[in-house]
Amino acid sequence: MSKALPEIKESNGFNFITSIWIVPFIAIVIALWLTYQHYSQLGQKIEITFEKNSGLKAGHSQIKFKDVSIGQVIQVALDDDGDGIKVTARIDKEAIDYLNEEAKFWIIKPTVGMSGVSGLDTIISGTYINLYSKKKRFNKKRFMGLEQPYRLLADGEYFHLNASSSFNVDRGTPIFFKNMKAGYVEYVFISLDGKSVDVIVYIEKTYAPYIHVDTKFWVQSTLNINYANGQLDFTVAPASNLVKGGIEFSAGEDSSGKVPYDYIFRLYRDSSTAADKKIGMGGEAIREYAMHFDESIAKLKRDASVRYEKFDIGRVKDIAHRYNSKSHKLSGKVLISIDTSIFIDPDESNKTGEANLIQAVKDGLRASLQEHDPISGLLYINLSFAEDNQTEMITYQNGYANFPTISTQGSGLVSELEGLIVKLGELPLDDLIRSIDDTVDNLNGILETNRSETDQLFVNLNRTLEGINKIVDSREFSKIPAQLNKTMVRLRKTLRSIDSMMKSNGRESLLSSQLTETLKEVSRASRDTQKVLKKLEQKPNSLIFGD
Question: Please, which contacts does 76-85 make with residues 24 or more away whose CB atoms are closer than 8 Å?
Answer without folding.
Answer: 79/49, 84/49, 84/50, 84/51, 84/52, 85/49, 85/50, 85/51, 85/52, 85/53
